[in-house]
Structures are given as structure tokens and as C-alpha cells.
Design a protein that fits this description.
About 45% of the residues lie in helices and about 15% in strands. By secondary structure, the protein is α/β, with parallel strands linked by helices. An eight-stranded parallel β-sheet has the order 7-6-5-4-3-2-1-8.
């Protein structure tokens, strides 16, 4: 990233943008509350994650000011820069950074330095690479403890997309549970484009239940986004990952 881009990425946002983010956040929280009421659940049972891919550090700082500290990033290189920029803007804040996008094994060392959780573990090879990177980072003082991970589940089992099919889910979960540097925390999934949402989220819920039956501590279900969070909540998810509804059309520049 060049100097001009770095400067722009670390600027505070305007008062108008801050007000927009506050309004959007209130609207999303209301959607979650309404969905929980319809499902007979408490809003406290569902965590809101801001998907901050391509969002400026200034926007993230504003979200932190508004009380939203759970942040999801898709790209390792962008996220690594943003973590540093946000720390410069809000040195007293304690954002919880999750990686929710695909992860290449050659980038696990960077993620091990800043991620609280990786939600996209979908192979034994990736789990092993993360395990080694995390243990080395702990040994060298780069982090204090093991890394929480979610197994990414594929609803349709399409090998061209991320996620592990149901037939391999428990095998991968057992492997992750045996990695000293990792903590198996649960399951993440995305409903396939064009799928019937109730059918897709019922399948996701069943996969999460199967995982919990073997690993009771792996209770997190991260599922649901801007367009389908109500259905996800109805089927028991406890983390929703919201980008567009929260931050609008995403660009690198602050508004």
C-alpha cells in the first residue's frame, strides 16, 4: 500500500458517515431483535459481526466507537494492514478480528499474529499449517494463547467452493480438536446462492448439531448474512456476519 493510500485508510470518517453507520447499525440490530422475537430467542443469543472487507480503518474505528467490536475480514493481506491502522486510530480499543474468507497455507503466519478466530478451516492440511504457525507464534511471544477455529461446512459439497462436505465434517473436526495450537469452537457455513433458504439453513443446523454431539464445546454456529440473517436466526445460528446492510457499498476510501 502506498503512502497516499495508507494516509487515507487511517483518516477519521466524517460526521455524516459516522451518523450513517450509527443508523445502519441500529437498523441491523433491530432486524436481529425482531428475528429473535419471532423465533422465541433472546437477542443476547446472537452476536453481530461487521464484515469489514474493503472498509477503511476509519469506518472500523467509528464502528468500535459505536460499540461493535466483532470484525470479520476476508483477505489476509488487507486485514493485516487494517489491524495495524485501526490500532493506530484506537490504541485503547480491543477489537476481535476474525478471518472469515479462504485462507492459503502460505499466509497462516500472518493470521496467527492478529486473529482471534479463523472461521474458514476446511481441510486437514490447513488445520495443520495453522497449528504449526500458532504454536510458533505463541513461542515467540506473538500471541498469548491457542487459536479458536470454526470448521467451514459446505451445504452442497461443491468441490469448487470452500467448505468441507458432511461426509468429512466430523473427521476434520476430530483432527482440529487434536491440534495443540487450535481450539475447535464450532461451525461456519454460507447458504448456496439460489438455494431454498429454509432448506439450506435446516441442513446447516443439522450439521452443527452433529458436530456438537461429538464435541459439546464446539457450540458456535456462524451463519447468516445481510440478505438471510432472519432465516439463519430462525434455525439457531448465534453469529451473523453482516457487511452491506451495515456499511453500505464498500470502498477503500472513507466517506
Amino acid at each position: 500500500m502506498g503512502t497516499e493510500q495508507t494516509t487515507a485508510a487511517t483518516e477519521e470518517v466524517s460526521a455524516a458517515r459516522r451518523a450513517e453507520l450509527a443508523s445502519r447499525l441500529a437498523a441491523v440490530r433491530q432486524r436481529i431483535a425482531d428475528a429473535c422475537a419471532a423465533a422465541g430467542r433472546s437477542p443476547d443469543e446472537v452476536a453481530l459481526m461487521a464484515v469489514t472487507k474493503t472498509v477503511s480503518a476509519g469506518d472500523v474505528a467509528a464502528l468500535l466507537d459505536l460499540g461493535l467490536d466483532l470484525l470479520g475480514e476476508n483477505r489476509v493481506q488487507e486485514a493485516t494492514r487494517k489491524v495495524e491502522a485501526v490500532a493506530a486510530l484506537r490504541p485503547e480499543a480491543r477489537p476481535r478480528w476474525h478471518l472469515i474468507g479462504g485462507l492459503q497455507r502460505n499466509k497462516v503466519r500472518a493470521v496467527a499474529r492478529w486473529a482471534e478466530q479463523v472461521e474458514s478451516v476446511d481441510s486437514v492440511r490447513l488445520a495443520d499449517a495453522l497449528d504449526v504457525a500458532v504454536r510458533r507464534t505463541v513461542d515467540t511471544g506473538g500471541r498469548e494463547s491457542s487459536l479458536s477455529v470454526l470448521v467451514q461446512y459446505s451445504v452442497d459439497g461443491d468441490p469448487q467452493r470452500s467448505g468441507v462436505p458432511r461426509s468429512d465434517l466430523l473427521r476434520l473436526a476430530e483432527h482440529v480438536a487434536g491440534c495443540a495450537g487450535l481450539r475447535l469452537a464450532g461451525l461456519m457455513a454460507v447458504a448456496p446462492l439460489g438455494a431454498d433458504l429454509d432448506t439450506a439453513f435446516a441442513d446447516i443446523a443439522a450439521a452443527a448439531a452433529a458436530l456438537r454431539s461429538e464435541h459439546p464445546g464446539a457450540a458456535t454456529l456462524s451463519a447468516g448474512m445481510s440478505g438471510d440473517l432472519e432465516v439463519a436466526i430462525r434455525h439457531g445460528c448465534d453469529v451473523v456476519r453482516v457487511g452491506t446492510a451495515l456499511v453500505g457499498e464498500r470502498t477503500l476510501a472513507s466517506r
